[in-house]
Amino acid sequence: MVNRPPNPAPKPSATNTTKKRIVKKAKKIVKTSQLPTENSQQGGRPVLRRKVKTKKTSSGLASKLAIAILLGSACLVAAFAWVSIELMINPDKVTWLNKLLPAWVKSLTHDENPQTLPQIQSALEQQGTIAGDILPLESGEIETFLLPVFKQAHNCRSDCREIVELRVYQLSQNLELKSKAEKYYTLATQLSITGPEESFVVSPSVDATSENQGSNFVLPVREIGRLEGETSSSGIWLYAQGKHQQESQAIAYGYIFHYNPKRTNLQLMLSWTSPSGQLPKWQQVTGGGAKELVVDQTVGLEPQLNIYQVKPSNFVLNPIQLEQISLQTPALNDAAYQDALLIAKSGLWTPAWEWLQFIQKQRRDKIPAAAQAQIDMIRLHSQLTKAQADTTWASPSQQVLADLIDGRWGKALQVFQASPQNAQEIVTLLKADRGRLWNRVETALQVNPRRPEVQAWGALIIAVQQGQERANTFLEGQTQITKESLAYIQTLLAQVISEQ
């Protein structure tokens, strides 16, 4: 007999295989997505964790977005309502909208009712103010002009008018009025003015230790004009100024404005004061091609020039600003450079300039623009102090003062020792010092404590103001002084004591 192989196992049908796959997938889905909550344990429907979380997040974001849209819409409605009311009641208050609109949009000013110059003057008079002389802002035919508005000051004997507002008018674009003989103008922009306080005006000429620092009384601005001089910036620069008499000083003070014709924007750029009575002026200082604005705050023989550069700004209506060149933060990370700036801040401009020249020669890489601006500022001050020291003064005290300001310590000692009369006059000078000379001595010794002529002037100032005992204490504290220098300074102190 032939042994037959056993019957092969029956092949599973396609239907059964498909059912098994479906069941496996269903179980897998239930395992991964079912949330084991109290309801599921009791036979309730399974809750899907991910779906519930997504729904909550989506609904929360939608609610916040809806609230934000509602609040924004409410603010816009309120703003539009306010502008609409102002347009009906007082359109002049919203003339600033013109600066934000393109040129083809109709002006929001009283272009429907422009005025002639006599009508403008009459309207201002009815308001209790006075129209000043117009200042054309363009060459040729007067299409744009600045009009200062004055007010009569009370309890005033002479020169009683003060500027309270600046207005810019433009020729009306109304076609019907252009054909008339008289010119009609519309108000383009306006700016109210209040004068500076007395404390600001007198600040450069008042010592920090003085009891009279000036009051908060507002001083009037009486004059407006164009700031002459070519600049690389577009637009028109204007100044407003007043005068304040303090003892023998006629101090000038005021503001600097810039008018941007593209946006019809008049902006206050700077408040200034000058004890020497000088107007700010454009001057080439840094050598970068563009001129800087220089405000002269010199007091006596102490030069002090505030220098401002025209820099770009993010302000749309007037994209420029005035930025002062300052010595407070060294623009170069170099110890020698920082020492030079320290000396310059004390008023020793020429020694600082000489030091900086040496640094420039030693450096191989290019000096940054900010550092170069600081160097040029120091150079300009040095030119002034050097010219003063080179001058022959009739008064010994003035000669010594000019020498000390320029850092000529040895030459000043020669003048002091020249005659007893010189010594007596110089003692009076040292008594009157309120820290300007002493600051120079202190800084010079901080940078280089081995200079006997500087040590001598330090001892002389202390002896005159505080007595010989304090002067000797000062000399004892000088660790870098030699016996020869100490003996020499003691002879100078004896001369000072005999003059007191």
Short recap of the structure:
The protein has 500 residues and is an alpha+beta fold. Helix content is 43%, strand content 19%. It folds into three domains: 61-97; 117-324, no CATH class; 335-499, no CATH class.
Overview of the structural elements:
This protein has helices at 14-33, 38-41, 49-89, 117-126, 175-178, 198-202, 335-345, 349-362, 369-390, 396-405, 409-418, 420-432, 436-447, 452-466, 468-476, 483-499; strands at 34-35, 47-48, 130-131, 135-136, 144-152, 161-171, 185-192, 223-226, 236-246, 249-260, 265-274, 281-283, 292-296, 305-312, 320-324. The protein has three domains: 61-97; 117-324, no CATH class; 335-499, no CATH class. The protein is elongated. Strand 12 and strand 13 (292-296) form a beta hairpin. The chain has 16 helices and 15 strands. Helix content is 43%, strand content 19%. The longest helix is centred in the N-terminal third of the chain and has 41 residues, at 49-89. The chain crosses the membrane at residues 65-85. Keywords: Membrane, Transmembrane, Transmembrane helix.
Topology:
Layout: H1 14-33, E1 34-35, H2 38-41, E2 47-48, H3 49-89, H4 117-126, E3 130-131, E4 135-136, E5 144-152, E6 161-171, H5 175-178, E7 185-192, H6 198-202, E8 223-226, E9 236-246, E10 249-260, E11 265-274, E12 281-283, E13 292-296, E14 305-312, E15 320-324, H7 335-345, H8 349-362, H9 369-390, H10 396-405, H11 409-418, H12 420-432, H13 436-447, H14 452-466, H15 468-476, H16 483-499
Antiparallel strand pairs: 1-2, 3-5, 4-5, 5-6, 6-7, 8-9, 9-10, 10-11, 12-13, 13-14, 14-15
